[in-house]
Amino acid sequence: MPRVSRKKSSSGIYHIMLRGINRQTIFEEKEDRLKFLEVLSKYKNKGNFHLYGYCLMDNHIHLLVKESEEESISTSIKRISSSYVYWYNLKYERCGHLFQERFKSEIIDSQAVFLKVLRYIHQNPLKAGLTKDVLRSQWTSIREYIQKEEMVDTAMALNLFSLDRRTAMKRFIEHSRQRNDDRCLDLNNKKRLSDAEIMEQIRKIGLENTSGLQQMEKGDRDIFLSKLKELDGVSLRQLSRITGISKSVIHRVRQ
Fold it and tell me: CATH number of the domain at 13-177, out of 3.40.50.720, 3.30.70.1290, 3.50.50.60, 3.30.160.270?
C-alpha cells in the first residue's frame, strides 16, 4: 500500500515524534542523550529550522519545530536520525535500524494548539512518573525556558503569554504545570519496570534466578533474552545489570 503524503502545515510548524523500532530503548545513559542534543543542534543550524521544544524519553523523542525555507523538515529529521544512529551503532556494536522507519507528525495550526503541544511535550516525563515537577525535568526544553536559552527558540511561546518577560514567565510556568488530559501523538508509555518486577517476569518465563541464564547454551539464552526485551518498560542497561550479560550482547539478540 502506498504511503499517504504528510499534511502540510500552513504555519510551517510541526510536532514530530521519533520512536525506537519495536519500542526499543534509544537512550541507555546520559552520554546518549547528550549526543542526540549535540546532533540536534548541529542540524538545526545547518537546516536553519526553528526549534521550540523537545523531550527525550527512553524510547522516543518529541520535537516542536518550524520548517525552514531552505530545507524540508523531513530532510532535517532524516539527517538528525541518521547521524545519531550511526554514532549509536558504533558505540553499542550493533547494526541496522534504531528508529521506526517513518516519524510521526501533526500540524500546528493555531496558537492554542502550539501551547498545548509544548506543554504536552514538557509534561511527558511527569505523566510517565519520572519526575514530580515538570520544571525539574532534565531532558526536556523546559530548562531553556526557565534558565538559559541555548538552542531552543523560547521567544515565540513566551510572547504568546505577554510581551513583558516577567509576566510571560509567570504565566508560562502556570500553564506548564496545569493538569490536563492532552493526548498528542500519544504512545501510551508505561513507567519503567522496577528490578523486582523484571525478576517476577523472569520467573514467569521459567527461570528461578539469573545465574541459570549465564549457564545456558547460546541459542536457548538468546531466546530467553528476546522474551525479556519484548517487555514494555525495560531497558537494555537494566537487563544487563540484572542478568550480568553485557549490553552489547543483549543488543545483538533479535526479537
Answer: 3.30.70.1290
